[in-house]
UniProtKB/TrEMBL annotation:
It holds the Pfam family NACHT. The lineage of its organism: Eukaryota, Metazoa, Ecdysozoa, Arthropoda, Crustacea. It comes from the Eukaryota. This is NACHT domain-containing protein. Residues 294-417 form the NACHT domain. PROSITE patterns: NACHT. Signal peptide: none annotated. SUPFAM superfamilies: P-loop containing nucleoside triphosphate hydrolases.
Amino acid sequence: MATDPSSNMQADLPSDFSIKLYKYFKCVILVGKNVMTKVVQQIYASVPESMNGTVHLKDYLKGELKWKESDMRSVFTKLYIHLLETEVMSTSFEIDITLACRLLPKVFKDVYGKLSNECKKSIDDIKHMRNKLTHAMEPEESIDMKSEICKLQNVYENIYNGVGEAVDYDFSEDSDATKNILTMILGSTQIEDLELYQKNLEEFKKEVSHRLLIEGRKELQDYYSKLRVVNPCTWMLQGDRDIEKDNVSKYYIEKIYTPLKIKSKCRGAECEIDTKNLLTTTKLKRKNRYILPNCLLLNGLAGCGKTSLCRYILHDWRTKGKEIDALEDMNFVFLVEARSVRSKNLKEILTEQMLPSTLEILKNEKIDLIPMLLDMRVLFLIDGFDEASKDTKNVIKDIFARFNKKSEHRILITTRPEYLEEVGILMEVHNFEYITVKICGFDENGIKSFTDKVFKEALHNKPEKYVKEENWKFFKYLNGRGRILNNQLYLPLTLALLIHLWIHDKEKKRINSVTNCTTLYFELFSLCKDKVMERLIFKEKHVDMKTINGVLLFIGQIAWNMMSKNHVIINSEEKKKIEDECKRKHVEENEIMSAFLECEFDDNQDSKEIRNYSFLHKVQMEYLAAEFLADRVKSGQLEEVKGLKSWHGYYQVIVFLVGHLALSSPMELNRQSDLIFDLVDKAEIRGIDFEFWWKFLVEAGKNPKVAKIIAHDRLPETSWDLVYNETNENLVSGLELLGTIPVKIESIKIEVDNSMDPYDIKDMYKLMKDLRSHLRHRNKQNPLLTELHFWRHYNDGRCSEHSDDFVKTLRPWGHLTNLTGSLGDQEEGNGLLLNFCFNLKTIRVRLCTLKAVKNLHISLKRIYRTVRKLRITLDMSPDSVDPANFPSLTFKGDLEIHIPRVKDDNKEWVVATVKSLSQGRGCDHLELDNSELSYKSVVYLLKKLTNVIIDKLTVGTLFEITMNMRLEVEEMENDTHIHVNWLG
């Protein structure tokens, strides 16, 4: 007999026999079938119209549910059609897990509706474990038997308990028997039923769902293996000979992928998400519990790494990796590249683009694919909603409409920020639970790691010492002259292109000319054009640079025509136009097209060589389209520019157009400024979109005329709100503009929400500090009224940072009117607010030391006339400060004192502290949140502070306050004239 894997098995066992698979099969398929058969039988028996289960299912479905033959055939496939006329309560009635899970919500809706959420989840789990058995048959798949059987015990018990409660039936004997069987199978060391197992296994393998999983996963994995290469410019710097000989440096996703900075709102605060946890920790709060959303909406700027992240997910799923939690549970992962969709609905894209070979193999089964996928765990990766055509959007709507019922189906969709609202509306229409996740590109460590990896791959045939030296020189450039690109360096696409330029620009003249995105692409294409010229001269095909420029402009025209029609793939008609243009100019089309476009060769080597071309990415397409438009604008041919009524979604084209005109000459940009700003109006760019206007100005080479127009005509005239929060990161761009262009605003509000420490916002402090030189004309006679709101500094007691340095940067240009933050210790007698804050009206500050309180006291002596409201949070231990040492806070407005985390032992300290701070004026509002105050202590405080608290006492306590206690406090309110507000 066969023994445990650790022992020798009998010689006559098949060579491919796996005892783990044998045990897992029995525990899931055989035991699971037994469990689901019993619960379906009892559910059916509980339905009055079934006459205690004696009515055949076929008669019940026809008579009671009015099902047609076609309805029954759609649920009961060939393998199960006999069950319609089998006595349900007989021992010959056995129902498959998948069929049982399908019947429960469709046939027994009333009972299914009564099942607990835990029971429903377990029903979904057993269906998934049945599908997972197919995964277990794939090569290199491992099974942790103890863990799986432990899960199964809980799943079966939950199903028995949930169904038993719903139909009032005791399954305890069945549940105990099931546990014993599972334990026996796990501990078994002998194979006594090999023939029966093999028969059952063969029957399982004949099932359509198993064959769909096996063939479909293989087809998808084969296709995804071709998507491993993620070069930003695979062909641009190579010749045909290199391509044909496969000498091109290829960047494989598994070798160069570098974790991106991914941010989302997690339980009320902004947090970073590890790529590993992307599918598991992004929770959404609903009805006081956190759930896993159906959809993740990933947004980010062009080139921030959205597509690379999708490719990395595909690679991890294809290779059965463990880099992304819960990904291995997905039966299928479907990539929907918006730019590549050629279908009009979901069924078409599944059958024609994703699983054509699989469905050809299964054509005799006449399967209904989508209902089968609905019974599985499916992840859709929809990459590039901003590139979606009308037909593509119909496919996406179809996905949303069909896969929005169960949490086991997940959708991850990427887009640029300007399309967020459209995607959000689409998901809300289909009742999708979703959260927005922002892809921010790299952080500083990511830049270093990515650079190391790309140099290693790009220079794989060079000595290691040379690679390290070039890498070091490039990183030195990034930290020096390269800093002019600022935030663009954090975008993987920009960084990769910059590395390409560095490697091929031997004298570094080109890379030192890069000042923005337009010049980066300009220099990269110039280098490519030189390479093309070198190849043509080598082949004795004499073509001048003017001709090559002309062909490239024509490709730009094709790009613009495609974009204006919302097309992103070069079809045969457009390809022929480019080929004809090359012939007209006597240029070999393959030389040009393979240099500037992505080229794919037909796999069939016996046929005539066929090359398919596409743009490398949307940014390249936008750059070339803008170059063509700039050429037309300069020559006075404005039909293409003025012919488009709406420029919404063409932001990047506008920015590149400005860059091309600026490259031509500052005078040319000045001449065309009215036209450019007219396009901005058609794109509906808001004046408060500081991020766009800063990018616009940078691409314009900080042209003085453009700067003046932006300052006087486009941005808000009197007041700016520079805010950093989940949906708005305009703050840094706004500060850049404030330090560059001649604005005449009267006031500015700088606000950072609770999710971020302002010191962690790159360049923010430096920019504010540097404003002193640019705003030197703003002084006491011409002040810029300023509000500072740093909510983490104020709210978060764990934040050790104070707002002092930021307030100091306002001297002398900014006059503080409102402050929210934290004040630290200052030099004795020189309070932070002392010298220049005579317009300060509202102060909300967290104070952590006695010295900080004393400095505020000193400041108030100077500015007390203007302060209308002061709210202080005393974030200090009562043991650390003698209340008698607190100074009085004297001014003419309202005083609010907030003391968190107070305990009963501290009540006397609270009384003495409030009296000291409010001496001679009273405290309008005392707040004691997150406290451990008993009811008696609250009463004590009310009595002791009767003549001190003017208006309100707010209390949040861990102790239970009964209704009678609250009524007693209400009576005291009449005597004390203090309103008591209970939190929670």
